[in-house]
Amino acid sequence: MAYADQEMSTRRVAAIAFVALLHAGVGYALVTGLAYNAAKEMYEDLKTFDVVPEEPDKPEEPPPPPPKDMPPPPPQVTVPPPLVTSSVVTTNVIRPIETVKPIEVAKPIEKPPEKPKIAVKGGPKGNPGGWVTNDDYPPSAKRNEESGTTGVRVEVGTDGKPTGCSVTSSSGSGTLDDAACRLLMRRAKFT
Fold first, then answer.
1. Which residue from 90, 91, 96 is spatially nearest to 75, judged by alpha carbons?
2. For residues 6, 7, 9 and 15, what is the CA-based torsion angle, rounded to 10 degrees?
3. Which CA distances in Å does 167 have to 39, 142, 153, 154, 179?
4. 53 vs 172, residue with greater confidence
5. How is residue 131 annotated by DSSP?
6. Residue 169's closest CA among 177, 179, 178?
7. How far apart are CA 181 and CA 163, in angstroms?
8. How confident is the model at residue 123 (pLDDT cuts 50, 70, 90)?
9. Binning pLDDT at 50, 70 and 90, where does residue 28 land?
10. In sequence order, what are the beta bridge partners of 132?
11. What gap in Å lies between CA 61 and CA 63, rounded to an integer?
């Protein structure tokens, strides 16, 4: 009870107050200093630029003259306007058909055939001796003084976790066999 009877001395109270003020001062300095630097960095990162109007599009150049070895294009034929009593007149112009180069079609890219998936022998991840220990011995098997060695086969998925467990050689105790499979399904990991 010696701790309960002690009174706080004035030196101890002064030391606690000094430490509290010191922490508050350092905290205030950090907060205001960081806020000042953040505002300063934002101001420095601000970039301005002038918007220049786009140049007007240049008029299209006339197409190059046809090669000399080609026959001249047929003359343009104009169809006389239909007889109309209104002031709108339409004119139909027949233009020569230009020759079009055939488009080359690229050959489709052939994918290499997929390799068949083959089961690969993996190995245990970590120490398999730690997956089942003496602490995991079923209490009912201890009471009945059951013992033995259980052989198991564990099926493993692609993620390294067990997907199935079967007993290949029994210990003579169903309790021990079940406990072995249950613990391996929960704790075993493979590559």
1. 96
2. 80
3. 69, 21, 6, 9, 11
4. 172
5. T
6. 177
7. 11
8. confident
9. confident
10. none
11. 6
Positive or negative torsion for Cα 125, 128, 134, 139: positive
C-alpha span between 25 and 157 (Å, rounded): 58
Cβ contact 148:177 at 8 Å: no
Averaged pLDDT of the chain:
76
Residue type, 107: K
For residue 44, give the H/E element and its range: helix 10-45
Block residue for tokens 């976790």: 161
Distance CA 80, CA 70 (A): 30
pLDDT by residue (tens digit) across 95-112? 666 666 676 766 777 777
CA-nearest of 181, 177, 188 to 147 is 177
